[in-house]
Each structure stands twice: as C-alpha cells, then as structure tokens.
C-alpha cells in the first residue's frame, strides 16, 4: 500500500478535469436522445413518407443532432460516421446529384439497410433527408418514399451504433493512463475534448455564418445551412447551447467570463429573427450577423484564457481543417 | 487562399527544453528553410522543363509532344507536393498557394466539357464559362476582353472569379486539365483522354479554338513558372519567408508543427482522402484528370516526414539535411520522438501500398467505387495512419511546451498577440 501511494507523486498528475462530466452528463445522454429520436424518425418515415408526422420527427431528431454534432472525436471518428450523418457544406451539390441519380435509376440499393451504407455519404444523413422531405423539385413517388425511409433508417442505425459505442468509449475517455492506448495521459483526453469545443465554435462561425455572409459585395444567402427546412438560425442557437454545456462540463472551476460571452452570443443569435439568415444580403441585418461572428471569436478568446490555461492544454488539430 | 490551419501561437515560450539542450532552434529552422528553398527550386526546375515541353507541343503539335508534356507535368508534381507541408503555418505560402495548387476546379470555366458536366450552378454562375471559346464575356457585371489570353488575364480577372474558389484559372490543376481533359471513366480504369489534335493547327484542330487553347496552356504554364520563381526567392538567403521563420524561434518551431499536423489531418486525411472514399466520387480526386492522385498523397506525406527528420532528397539525388525537429523533440522527450518517427514511417508504408496498387493498374478512382472494399481499405489504411501520426504530433507540441494553439480564422498568424489582448 505504501508503495502504491507513492505512484501519484512519481507520475505527472493526470488532468482529469471534467472528463467524467463530459461523458456522463454531456455525451452519453445526448447520444441516447439522438438514438431515440432518429428511431422515431425512421419508424415514422417508413409509413408517413414526407407527411407532417415525419417532418416533426425530423425536426426533433435534427435538434438532437445539434446537441452532439460538435463531438467529432471518439466513436464517430473511429467508425467514420460523421459525414454519413451530416454532409455539409456541399458546394458541388453532391447531395442533390446523388439523390437524383438514385431516383433516376430506381436503384434497388434502398431495399437493404446494410447495402445502403455503401452509397455515397452525400445521399445519407440529415441533409440528404432534408432534400427528400423539403425539396419539391425532386421527383416524387413510391421510389422516393422508399429512399426517404432508407435514409432515415440509416440515420437511426448509425445513431444507435454511436450511442452503444459511447458506453465503452466513456471508459477510455475518463480513464487515461499508461495502459490506455488512446489517452496515455489525462492531458491527451482533455485536449481532445477541448479541441472539439473550439472546433465547434469555429465551424459555426466560419461555416454556418461565414458561408452565407460571403463578402459585403457578394453575400451568399443561398449558402446558408439547412435552408430548405428553415433551420439556419436555429442550428446556430442550438450549437451554441450545446457548446456551452460542453464547456461547463469540462471545466473544473467556474468560467464566468466564458459564460458571459456565451450568453451574449446566444442572446444575439436568438434575436436575429431570421430563420434562413437571409439578412446577410441586407446591410443592417448583415451587421448583426457579423457581430455574432465576433461574439463567437470572443468566446474562443475567453475559453483560451479561462479554460484552456486552467486545464493546461491547448487545442490540437482540427478534423475540419481542410480546404 | 484561406489559412486553413491551427496556428500554434508563437507568443508562448517553449520552456520545456532543458537548458543543456544541444540542438539549437535556429539550426533546426535553418534546415527547415533550406529544405523549403530546395523544394521550391526543384519545383521551379521541373516546371521549366514542363514549360519547354508545352512550348514544343504548341510549336509542333503531335501525340508524342502531348505525351512529353504530360510526363513533364507528372515529374513536376514530385518536388512540389513535398513542399505542401510549408503551406500550413506559413502565411506567405498559404496566401500564395491558391494560385498554384487550387483544387477542386469547375473546369468548364476554362474549356469545353462533356454534356454530363452540366452548366452554371447555384454556387457558381461561371462554372461553364469556357474562356477558350469566348474571347469576350461578362463577369460579375464587368465586360472582360479575353482576346489575348495572358498570365495577367488568368490571375487577374479569371482566377477565383466572382469570389468562387472553384473558379480555378491557374496553377498545376488548370494545366493538368489542359493536358489530359476530363476523366470520363467514372470509377473505371482510365484518366482523361484529350486528343493531341486539341492543339493542332488548321483543319486538324478538334473541339475548336486550338490556338486559344494553346495560348491558355502557355499562359498558365508561364504563370506557374513565375509563381515558383517568386516563392523560391522568398526562401533564399534574405527572403521574406526565411526571415519570418528565423525571426522568432518559437513561432518558427510552431509553424513547422502546425504545417505537419494540419496537412496530415484536416487536409490530407480528411478533405483529400476520406471524403473521396465516402462520396465514391472520382471528381474528389486531387489529380482527377491525370489519375496521379496516389502520387500527390504519397509525396504530401513524404514532405511531412522530411520536415520532421530535417532531410530532403532533391530531384538530382543530392540531399539537403541538417539539425532536425526530431532531435529537438528527442531532447525534450525521447519516447515521443521515437513514437512520432515510427508513425511517420508507418504512414509511408500505408501510402506505399496504395501507390503500388495504383501503379499496378488498380487506379485511385477504382479504389473509390461504391462497395470496393479493397480500395477503401487501401485508402483508409493511409487515412488512419495520418490520423494516428497527428496524435503524436500533438504530443510533440506538448513535449516542446508549445502550450497554446489557436484556430484558423482568428488572425493568429498575422497577429499572434491578438488572442491575449
């Protein structure tokens, strides 16, 4: 016993700050919620096609996805499932082309859930489903309904897989140490979560807001996320709420400055009153959206000084860091 | 182009290196700059060979002359791809890179395309502009006179026209398109198959406007040469890129690690490799016209390893080497250095397996086909190795005590103090 007690003095103290809370209070219940609401969505779409009940189930499931979409580490990365759930941005309209291709061929791949996993990720997940449910220019009919059901089923299966995998992975994340091949130190695990937090902020700032903003002379209102379903603003609000929850879970001390910065951003995002961010093309409304981008920068700054410094970690590399 | 990187802030002292450290950071950075200079100089040399081959093709069009130009292009990619690791982390490279290696492109901007390509898109009004067939046109409300196709026209009016990134009018991939044409084989074997007669004179000319096509190819190649001349000079003694990395040791070391990690992970593993597999889309190939994608990936990965080990083998076989980042990390934490070296080697083995299969006839676009498990395994093997090495790069960052990283878009490279104000 005496010798064991010495070990912590010989090893650097693991930075376990908040990892338990991140797993238990944040990730696990949120993945569980996503698994349930996507299951409801799949069951509804199988009979209701693109009726009102499916649209409501879609809204609920997408809301739950916004609760975890920033978690780009762990099972979602290991199993390569992120893009199969959410392929956006899509500047080349790969989703539209992939869906039209399947419909034109009446591709029988929709008949087996197992097979459907092999199709282009552009024809899977929330954004493909959005096209199927809200884009009236797509040819309608039995095949399109079968396709809708297949996409919804795939989403439910994928979400269930993630919820299950997280139960094991929670152990990996919360028990760093020399015997843990993924996180040999607490800092490795903490850095992973911290990176996801900052990457999530960056994604909302540069993609959800930055893409439609374009430049002052050339705003791009039709590049806003999830426009067809009218969720562009809603996704910004929900992502901020999810990220704040993650920051609070990770912190092992109060982070009042960061919280205040989150509050400002959330208040501004909620007050935009602009579901599809069409305001990017209007000088006055645009100003408010640009100010929101600045709010997000401020959150990053506060987190770096208040949370990152306290945890002794810096952000690692970002999976969305491509061109 | 946008600085797509996590810049590791240079304001934090790299304090973890013990006082007795034998390796000088200035020496490590000097090696880094020397390798950059050699790499861009090699890229320039091989781009000039491409330029000669293009001149020969235009002067006397033939199947042989087109083939020689294609071969010169392929050879030119070998040194250039090894410099890509300099892009992330060095603002001067990143700001310039878009003119030279931008991708993917809406090639209909430049020349004729197959009907399946479609026309203008919601995202890009000019996706099918076809400059070669149209001496005058309107662009974002401005009348453009393209009667003479010059380097100035390409880099001024056309490149990223209407602020759309896929309007790529210049660089390696524009030249690649002009040499190979569209690859219409989908996920079957075969690259683009542009006939040499697209450059023929008089009645032999196919697909129209052969003279303008030749003018475009020449202008794009000349521009590539002058761009590479410029970047080579930036890394020479007294050049801006070299002085920048040497002016602040800690920021310089951070730039090295940022370049390695950002290229490995978000850019290469994610955007260039994994996305193509998951979309089953050969248009997502980095060198989609020539089917040279496997080499682009291979030499990108080799560039990351070069920077870490402080050694680059030039196109004439001579070696540029010196004090390395590896030695610096080893002094801070030998285990992390061993781990990172092993992972860089593992990546090269995975990349080699992919390259070997591609060279044996299992082309990269075939690997991308829906349900092609063997192809997916080859590509994902390399992707996973890149992801794995990124984790070790992060550990190297920690070992060196560079404990503050910032994100792309927060102006950190331009203004490293901004985050702490």
From TrEMBL, chain A:
<feature type="region of interest" description="Disordered">
    <location>
        <begin position="210"/>
        <end position="229"/>
    </location>
</feature>
<dbReference type="InterPro" id="IPR034984">
    <property type="entry name" value="Imelysin-like_IPPA"/>
</dbReference>
<dbReference type="GO" id="GO:0030313">
    <property type="term" value="C:cell envelope"/>
</dbReference>
<keyword id="KW-0732">Signal</keyword>
<protein>
    <recommendedName>
        <fullName>Imelysin-like domain-containing protein</fullName>
    </recommendedName>
</protein>
<dbReference type="InterPro" id="IPR018976">
    <property type="entry name" value="Imelysin-like"/>
</dbReference>
<feature type="domain" description="Imelysin-like">
    <location>
        <begin position="27"/>
        <end position="301"/>
    </location>
</feature>
<feature type="signal peptide">
    <location>
        <begin position="1"/>
        <end position="17"/>
    </location>
</feature>
<dbReference type="Pfam" id="PF09375">
    <property type="entry name" value="Peptidase_M75"/>
</dbReference>
<dbReference type="InterPro" id="IPR038352">
    <property type="entry name" value="Imelysin_sf"/>
</dbReference>
From TrEMBL, chain B:
<dbReference type="Pfam" id="PF09375">
    <property type="entry name" value="Peptidase_M75"/>
</dbReference>
<protein>
    <submittedName>
        <fullName>Peptidase</fullName>
    </submittedName>
</protein>
<dbReference type="InterPro" id="IPR038352">
    <property type="entry name" value="Imelysin_sf"/>
</dbReference>
<dbReference type="InterPro" id="IPR018976">
    <property type="entry name" value="Imelysin-like"/>
</dbReference>
<feature type="domain" description="Imelysin-like">
    <location>
        <begin position="36"/>
        <end position="392"/>
    </location>
</feature>
<feature type="signal peptide">
    <location>
        <begin position="1"/>
        <end position="21"/>
    </location>
</feature>
<keyword id="KW-0732">Signal</keyword>
<dbReference type="GO" id="GO:0030313">
    <property type="term" value="C:cell envelope"/>
</dbReference>
């Amino acid at each position: 016993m005496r010798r064991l007690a010495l070990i912590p003095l010989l090893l650097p103290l693991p930075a376990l700050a908040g990892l338990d809370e991140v797993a238990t209070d944040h990730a696990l219940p949120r993945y569980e919620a996503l698994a349930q609401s996507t299951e409801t969505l799949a069951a509804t779409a199988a009979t209701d096609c693109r009726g009102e009940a499916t649209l409501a189930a879609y809204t609920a499931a997408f809301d739950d996805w916004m609760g975890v979409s920033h978690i780009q580490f762990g099972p979602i990365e290991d199993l390569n499932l992120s893009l199969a759930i959410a392929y956006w941005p899509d500047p080349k309209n790969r989703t539209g082309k992939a869906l039209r291709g399947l419909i034109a061929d009446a591709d029988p791949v929709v008949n087996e859930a197992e097979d459907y996993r092999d199709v282009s990720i552009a024809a899977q997940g929330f954004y493909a489903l959005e096209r199927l449910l809200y884009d009236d220019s797509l040819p309608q009919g039995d095949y399109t309904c079968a396709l809708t059901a297949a996409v919804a089923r795939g989403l439910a299966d994928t979400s269930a897989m993630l919820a299950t995998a997280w139960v094991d992975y929670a152990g990996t994340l919360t028990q760093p140490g020399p015997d843990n091949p993924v996180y040999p130190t607490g800092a490795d695990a903490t850095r992973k979560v911290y990176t996801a937090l900052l990457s999530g902020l960056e994604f909302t700032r540069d993609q959800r807001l930055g893409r439609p903003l374009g430049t002052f002379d050339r705003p791009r209102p039709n590049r806003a996320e999830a426009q067809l379903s009218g969720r562009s603003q809603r996704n910004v609000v929900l992502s901020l709420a999810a990220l704040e929850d993650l920051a609070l879970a990770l912190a092992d001390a109060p982070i009042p400055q960061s919280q205040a910065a989150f509050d400002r951003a959330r208040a501004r995002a909620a007050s935009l009153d602009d579901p599809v961010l069409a305001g990017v093309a209007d000088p006055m409304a645009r100003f408010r959206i640009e100010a929101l981008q600045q709010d997000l920068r401020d959150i990053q700054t506060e987190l770096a000084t208040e949370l990152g410094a306290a945890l002794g970690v810096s952000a690692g590399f970002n999976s969305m860091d491509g061109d | 182009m946008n600085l797509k990187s996590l810049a590791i802030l240079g304001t934090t002292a790299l304090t973890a290196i013990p006082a007795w450290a034998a390796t000088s950071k200035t020496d490590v950075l000097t090696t880094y700059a020397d390798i950059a200079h050699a790499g861009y100089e090699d890229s320039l040399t091989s781009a000039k060979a491409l330029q000669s081959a293009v001149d020969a093709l235009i002067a006397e069009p033939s199947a042989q002359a087109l083939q020689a130009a294609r071969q010169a292009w392929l050879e030119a990619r070998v040194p250039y791809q090894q410099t890509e690791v300099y892009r992330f982390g060095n603002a001067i490279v990143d700001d310039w890179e878009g003119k030279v290696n931008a991708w993917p492109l809406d090639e209909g901007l430049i020349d004729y395309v197959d009907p399946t390509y479609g026309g203008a898109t919601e995202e890009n009004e000019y996706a099918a502009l076809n400059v070669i067939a149209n001496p005058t046109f309107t662009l974002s409300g401005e009348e453009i006179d393209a009667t003479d196709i010059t380097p100035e026209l390409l880099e001024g009016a056309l490149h990223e026209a209407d602020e759309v990134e896929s309007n790529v009018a210049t660089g390696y991939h524009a030249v690649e398109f002009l040499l190979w044409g569209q690859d219409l084989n989908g996920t079957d074997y075969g690259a683009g198959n542009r006939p040499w007669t697209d450059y023929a004179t008089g009645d032999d000319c196919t697909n129209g406007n052969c003279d303008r096509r030749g003018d475009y190819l020449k202008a794009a190649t000349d521009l590539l040469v002058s761009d590479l001349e410029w970047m080579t000079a930036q890394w020479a003694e007294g050049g801006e890129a070299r002085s920048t990395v040497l002016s602040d040791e800690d920021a310089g070391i951070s730039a090295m690690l940022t370049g390695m990690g950002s290229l490995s992970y978000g850019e290469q593993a994610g955007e260039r490799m994994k996305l193509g597999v998951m979309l089953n889309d050969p248009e997502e190939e980095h060198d989609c016209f020539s089917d040279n994608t496997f080499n682009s990936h291979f030499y990108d990965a080799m560039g990351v390893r070069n920077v870490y080990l402080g050694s680059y083998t030039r196109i004439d076989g001579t070696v540029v080497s010196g004090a390395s980042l590896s030695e610096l990390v080893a002094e801070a934490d030998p285990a992390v250095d061993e781990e990172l070296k092993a992972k860089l080697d593992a990546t090269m083995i995975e990349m080699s397996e992919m390259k070997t299969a591609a060279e044996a006839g299992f082309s990269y676009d075939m690997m991308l086909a829906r349900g092609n498990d063997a192809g997916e395994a080859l590509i994902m093997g390399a992707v996973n190795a890149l992801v794995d090495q990124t984790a070790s790069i992060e550990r190297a960052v920690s070992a060196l005590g560079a404990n503050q990283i910032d994100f792309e878009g927060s102006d950190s490279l331009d203004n490293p103090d901004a985050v702490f104000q």
